[in-house]
């Protein structure tokens, strides 16, 4: 009897998907390395204290446990925070340039029924110590290239800036509750709800008109920039327009601007973002596969003031899409199987070693039953699809052909690896 010991929200990764995962990870790490990013890793467990004061991740969404010393730990719910800690510990000079890449699993005990996955496989980069539009442009460019270089052509980035709306709300002296409510309505682009809510606030009509236009700041960047300029009521909002225009210009210069759409109405669950934030989408996927942005204040939590920008890719979402579109790298390496009689063990293992030395996968099994039985057993096994199967008996190799086992010249077999 088979028992179901699986846990909702956690997935097994089968051999073909794992092969694809490793190939894609290797390709992306090579891409990031070519831009100067150093691969690092942080622990699976983190101290609960690291997250207890972070309101971006609700406490109920954390997997908690207590170690033998009575210290509360959590399964890592986010990659950026521990990487920022690592950068602060290992590079105490705030003006240092630090570029990290990583591949990690994160864990969220989502209470929402729509959020089923609780273990998320991420790959991404974090760029510390550079507060320029060129830094933001490089991070966004690498997010785009991460998909393009895996054969995914229908890519677009929704690029926003949390400062534009925040600087507007600062000018209006809104309460936290009022800000949160308006942010939610703006992100949902529900102009009717925004208008109804604003009708109950003591606010000048021209300011209400500006807020009502925020959800419409979506679309082609140059058109959105023109509209943004008309809505600025202070120098900080004007600065945002200048910054996001420079980032877009950088993407134009390097030939990737066509993948970017502006959306000044969306927010991000990780509310440590201070400036730009963005989400990456691919066709036929309703949810983003990439999430990123600038978080200039996070490093101060560890005593080192340092600007930073980065992104994370949900690798398994990308693999699901690539599988549907037949874009996954396939494990088509030649595999050779040798069944041997007991007296031919030494020759079988020697030959298998020669195959492996020439980068051919080779497996050896002792003959325990009729050759037909061994052959049928392997042919039914998906793991041995397209394998070359040989039998070695009394110093002679045999292979099945047209229902019969015919002797082969062993030298011909050996020539396959020469």
UniProtKB/TrEMBL annotation:
Subcellular location: Cytoplasm
Quaternary structure, from the entry: Heteromultimer composed of HisG and HisZ subunits.
Name listed for the protein in its UniProt record: ATP phosphoribosyltransferase regulatory subunit
Pfam family, one: tRNA-synt_His
Class II Histidinyl-tRNA synthetase (HisRS)-like catalytic core domain segment(s): 9-317
Keywords: Amino-acid biosynthesis, Cytoplasm, Glycosyltransferase, Histidine biosynthesis, Transferase
Top-rank taxon, per record: Bacteria
Gene: hisZ
């Amino acid at each position: 009897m088979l028992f179901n010991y699986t846990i909702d929200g956690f997935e097994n990764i089968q051999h073909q998907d794992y092969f694809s995962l490793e190939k894609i990870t290797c390709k992306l790490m090579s891409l990031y390395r070519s831009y100067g990013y150093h691969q690092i890793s942080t622990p699976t467990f983190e101290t609960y204290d690291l997250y207890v004061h972070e309101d971006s991740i609700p406490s109920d969404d954390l997997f908690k446990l207590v170690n033998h010393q009575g210290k509360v730990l959590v399964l890592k719910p986010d990659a950026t925070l521990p990487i920022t800690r690592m950068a602060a510990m290992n590079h105490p000079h705030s003006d240092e340039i630090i570029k990290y890449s990583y591949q990690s699993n994160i864990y969220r005990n989502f209470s929402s029924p729509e959020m089923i996955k609780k273990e998320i496989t991420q790959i991404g980069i974090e760029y510390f110590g550079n507060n320029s539009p060129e830094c933001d442009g490089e991070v966004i460019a690498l997010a785009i290239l991460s998909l393009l270089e895996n054969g995914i052509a229908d890519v677009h980035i929704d690029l926003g800036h949390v400062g534009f709306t925040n600087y507007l709300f600062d000018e209006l002296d809104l309460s936290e509750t009022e800000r949160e409510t308006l942010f939610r309505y703006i992100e949902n682009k529900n102009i009717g709800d925004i208008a109804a809510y604003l009708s109950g606030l003591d606010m000048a009509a021209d300011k209400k008109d500006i807020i009502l236009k925020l959800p419409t700041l979506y679309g082609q960047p140059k058109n959105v920039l023109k509209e943004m300029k008309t809505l600025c009521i202070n120098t900080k909002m004007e600065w945002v327009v200048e910054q996001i225009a420079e980032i877009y210009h950088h993407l134009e210069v390097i030939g990737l601007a066509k993948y970017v759409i502006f959306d000044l109405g969306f927010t991000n669950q990780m509310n440590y973002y201070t400036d730009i934030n963005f989400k990456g989408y691919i066709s036929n996927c309703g949810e983003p596969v990439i999430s990123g942005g600038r978080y200039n204040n996070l490093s101060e939590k560890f005593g080192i003031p340092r600007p930073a920008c980065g992104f994370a890719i949900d690798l398994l979402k990308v693999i699901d899409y690539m599988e549907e579109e037949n874009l996954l790298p396939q494990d088509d390496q030649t595999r050779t199987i040798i069944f041997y009689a007991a007296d031919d063990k030494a020759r079988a293992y020697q030959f298998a070693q020669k195959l492996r030395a020439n980068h051919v996968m080779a497996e050896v099994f002792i003959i325990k039953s009729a050759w037909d039985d061994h052959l049928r057993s392997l042919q039914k096994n998906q793991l041995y699809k397209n394998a070359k199967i040989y039998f070695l008996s009394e110093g002679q190799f045999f292979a099945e052909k047209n229902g019969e086992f015919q002797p082969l010249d062993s030298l011909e077999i050996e020539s396959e690896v020469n």
